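Morning!

As promised:
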Amino acid sequence: MVSPVLRLCMRYRVTGLSSGTGQKSPALFHKFITKRYVEFNFSPEKPCEGKGETSRMNLCQAINSALHTTLVNDPTAVVFGEDVAFGGVFRCTLDLQKRFGKDRVFNSPLCEQGIVGFGIGCAVAGTTAVAEVQFADYIFPAFDQLVNEAAKYRYRSGNQFDCGKLTVRAAWGAVGHGSLYHSQSPESFFAHAAGLKIVIPRGPIKAKGLLLACIQDKDPCIFFEPKVLYRAAVEDVPVKEYTLPLGKADVLVEGDAVTLIGWGTEVHILKEVADMAKEQLKVQCEVIDLVTINPWDVETVCNSVKKTGRVIVAHEAPLTGGFASEITAVIQEECFLHLEAPVQRVTGFDTPFPHVFEPFYLPDKWRCFDAVKKTLTY
Amino acid sequence: MIKVNIWNFGKKAQRHFGTWYQMSKDVATRMAPDFMEMSMKAISSFFTSSKKSYATEATFETKPFRLHRLEMGPSNTVTVTRDDALALYEQMHTIRRMETAAGNMYKEKIIRGFCHLYSGQEACAVGIKAALRPQDSVITAYRAHGWTYVMGVPQLGVLSELTGRQSGCARGKGGSMHMYGKNFYGGNGIVGAQVPLGVGIALASKYSGSDGVCIALYGDGAANQGQVYEVYNMAKLWDVPCIFVCENNGYGMGTSVERASASTAYYTRGDYVPGIWVDGMDVLAVREAARYSVDYCTSGKGPILLEMATYRYSGHSMSDPGTSYRTREEIQEVRQTRDPVTSFKEKIIAAELATAEEMKNLENKIRAAVDENVKKAKSDKEIGLEELVTDIYADSKEEYIRGITPWDRLEHKTLGMAVNV
């Protein structure tokens, strides 16, 4: 059995993408190959007002700017992780060691459990620790340190000790060709551990403000960076220090027909879906970027749902136990009588992150749009 | 049999051939002419038959092994027959060609994802495999292409896996890091995660009485993962026939061993697990050490740890140019003075095991085979979309896999049996 949606995907793939492999010129072939993976259009923020001078930065540079700002303003701050000295695999920490020295920006051995444990130790002793885990897929050796040590330090010591000065950064999400271990979105694993804050930015402006907020926050934070946006996302980012609120969702597009909820890369897909719905279905969708996974902004979400009565939550992580499940459960508790259709989750499948099937696995605009149509005609 | 000492190293050589990364530049420069001179000194042609003008066997001396908690190590004097020498060379050269092809296909964007090349480290896989018996197993990390090939997967199986096509050894579902074959428990994408598995595989061999050993490979970077130490302990505690092999190529991703490890003597880092330092650029030394280790393990003495001093020419993966943390000169130097493939070829020719022309013909044959398989790997089909939900569970308990939306579910499928069941 092939589902209608999958058939849609297949059609899409055949018409636009893989037809005539081998007969095309190399340049054209390249274009098709590139187009085949991670289909989304980045929609930049409007320039910030009142935050002073700005500079064109991609997500990498915005992260770099936040770390730079931290190292300048906080003399206790240290930045460490695998290969951060030469800039890290994604070059987010480029030149930081040159500027701030080997005592403050340094490489760690390849041992995630050690990196996070070390970071917790630094933080509990009063140092601002910004640890990098090279890929979110590699964070699992450190799962115990994060869930059992970092999350519970404050609680179990009756607030005598905490590791709030710890921030763990990790490259997150699909990148177009990452296969099983360079593509995962493990946010919901950590959402289950009270005591951690989990933040995912959608672009450079948000990334700098949120990362600085995480670093300055008094609780341990995990900051997941959508790696496909590292270079694809470019915005005018304020040069000086600024923070953006944690636990606060952003309503990016206002509407009354369907509420579309996502975070990270998915936000850009949902914005495009809202445009498609407006154009093809003549309805106005409301797009919400959740921004913070834990603690998440129940109020903003529920206010929107009460207005629209129809909801779609989309994320790259698999369906079962994904964070959409939690949002869905809360919506049905809080907004039961307002709902016009069941809450829909459009997510990765309950499969490992596939190698050759990535375009089908991802909750792309076609799948989300299909869900919009279904929820409107429920 | 008359022994021919081609490599006659005295104390001076021992000093020069410290683990490669300890070599200062000038030492390495001085080493280069020595190396050439010594290779050329090769004298042989014994056992020459009347019809053939080549030697059937030659004996070489390896760099000294360094021992940790061992009274006696492998022999420094190794003998190789013409047939074995050519077979070893063919495998090493094939891996080199395949990796070059893989690098090119990656640059053409035909291989997507993460692609870690084995070029420079060929002697490790080929030498170890030559010492293994049919009942022995291997598990390695993400630098798996060469290993997959020597463990019996045809070239096409490796190359098509890289391009994600159906003739790939995992039918394109795994890609670069995830290739499997009989008694080859795969590449593994997570640094160090395969090492505990290797000890488990070795325990299973012991428990089932197969007399097999397991080779658990990891890099110098993974040597700092905590789980590696957990299983050193378990392996020694229960005398598990596991051969830990640390392929020390000098860099854990972009960090050199000195900057990552408090002790770079990886062969000693098992503490109570005996260890041997091996010149991982000399296929015969590797084979000798692996033979010794298989004997050691099967005699019931428990695990042993081999450190292979080797080098990778490419970056950590294709996205790493491999030049931001080391100099181009350093790479060139290794290529010229220690390359496992060309140095072995020189030995073969110098010992008159084969002529330069024979070697050239062999290389041409390999090149043609790889080119042919590359062509197939590029043009083969991908597996059907239904395999997205195939083989997630052996017995799913649910007919459908949840996904997409609540209305659209995919039928769960199982395809055949796992090779090791």
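Residues 34 and 198 of chain B are 39 Å apart (CA to CA).

Hope this helps with the figure draft.
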